[in-house]
Amino acid sequence: MGFPEFVIAIASIMALNPLAMDMMLPALPSIGAAFNIADANHPQMVLSTFLIGFGVGQFVMGPLSDRFGRRPVLLGGMAVYGIASLLAIAASSFETLLLARALQGLGTSATRVIATSIVRDCYAGRRMASVMSLAMMVFIAVPVVAPSLGQAVLLLTQWRGIFVALMLYGVIALIWSALRMPETLPVEERKSLRLGEVLAAFRQTISNRQTLGYALACGGVWGAMFAFVFSSQQVFTDIYRLGHYFPLAFAAIATGVAIAGFLNSRIVGRLGMRVISHGALAGFLLVAAVMLAAVKLQMLPLPLFMLLSALMMFTFGLMMANFTALAMEPHGHIAGTASSLYGSITTLLGIGVGMAIGQSYDGTLLPFSTGFFLCALAALGIAAVTEKGRLFRPHHTTM
User: Fold this and answer.
1) 3-class secondary structure for 216-253?
2) Residue of 343, 303, 387, 314 whose CA lies nearest to 140
3) Percentage of residues of the chain with pLDDT beyond 70
4) Which pLDDT band holds residue 399 (cuts at 50, 70, 90)?
5) pLDDT band at 88 (very low <50, low <70, confident <90, very high)
6) Which residue in 77, 22, 67 sits closest to 249, CA to CA?
7) How far is the first Cα of the chain from the last one, in angstroms, to the nearest whole number?
8) Which string of DSSP letters, residue by residue, matches 273-293?
9) Is 2 left (phi over 0), alpha (psi -120 to 50) or beta?
10) How does DSSP classify residue 183?
């Protein structure tokens, strides 16, 4: 597999997760109506339950891949994803749909962990950050277009058709991975699944200052991003009255991540992961402060909200690949387990914070803007503690 195909393949399997998340956004009102859900915030559970399965699943996918290799776990996760999609298509109750979503999340946890582990098997440091940025630039096209794809499916059929589309994409990704994705973990480097050794690897990961610090900081950032995703359909349709044009607004905002991914891949080798991610985190906080002030002053028209949201996505895109590379840097020998624990911490922390903010939606932007600001402030503080105050400066010590 050549380098371009490798990057695209990694991006494609990573894209299973955002595709399953963002295609559902336009369908939330239809799902709520289909199952007679009275509370307008409860359909958000279609998103949050998926993410819970995704977060919990990452705990086991890494150790399994460190023991059995990357390919079997990757292909098995994709198979679970396909079965869960069938269950969602046939769901006769909201509870069954939520079970299917949790299983979908469990399946995509394998794709996320294994993709990161494969990249770490092959690359380290700034080169890993560059590869992750290129993959992010490719796969971020999915959340940009996914709501529009979901809306297009709804124009042709009902919300269950979205799960048919998700299943078909999963089958294509499974076949491509089975035929082309190599095994990157040699047999002699595989780890035991004995509980003591797994716990030792978890302890080694979580006790590393650099890994834990960036996992917590990333979780804070994800909290703001999940809150935005959970609330976006209501914000754009209830507050800004965009109706069916909501997917276009979401796509315009999400392009900021793609631009950031491309830019990061070009400059990370020269500037380093810390300089870029710390600067982006400071920008993230500035955007949050401006948005909160605008909401308090009741001066946040749609164009300004779109601009600030796009800047939020841009700074987010400059942080994620670098935070992941920094967190994984000390753990090349246990990449699968480290990727599992890192992914679980960031996802579950982000879900908890994002759900709290999303469920507090009250028809205004005040809950989101307040939560966004607090998440950004906490993430910057954690990064400062992690780096012992040495922000915005490249260095090469492993803590």
Assistant:
1) HHHHHHHHHHHHHHHHHHHHHHHHCCCHHHHHHHHHHH
2) 314
3) 92
4) very low
5) very high
6) 22
7) 34
8) HHHHHHHHHHHHHHHHHHHHH
9) beta
10) P
CB 77 within 8 Å of CB 304: no
pLDDT level of residue 163 (50, 70, 90 thresholds): very high
46 is written with which tokens?
Answer: 């279609």
Is 125's pLDDT higher than 80?
A: no
Q: ∠119-124-130 over CA atoms, to 5°?
A: 70
Q: Is 81 helix (H, G, I), strand (E, B) or coil?
A: helix
Q: Which residues contact 98 (CB under 8 A, 6 or more apart)?
A: 45, 46, 49
Counting Cα atoms < 13 Å in the Cβ hemisphere of 67 gives 12
C-beta atoms surrounding 333 within 10 Å: 12
CA 153, CA 146: separation in Å to the nearest integer?
A: 10
Angle at 310 between CA 307 and CA 316, to 5 degrees: 140
Q: Which of 345, 130, 304, 361 is nearest to 218 (CA)?
A: 345
Distance CA 159, CA 294 (A): 36
Residue matched to tokens 């402030």: 377
- Write out the two tokens for 125: 């440091």
Q: Which of 2-16, 193-207, 235-249 has the highest mean pLDDT?
A: 235-249
> What does DSSP assign to residue 394?
-
The answer to whether 249 and 306 are in contact (CB under 8 A) is yes
Quote the pLDDT of residue 397. Answer: 42
Length, in residues, of the chain: 399
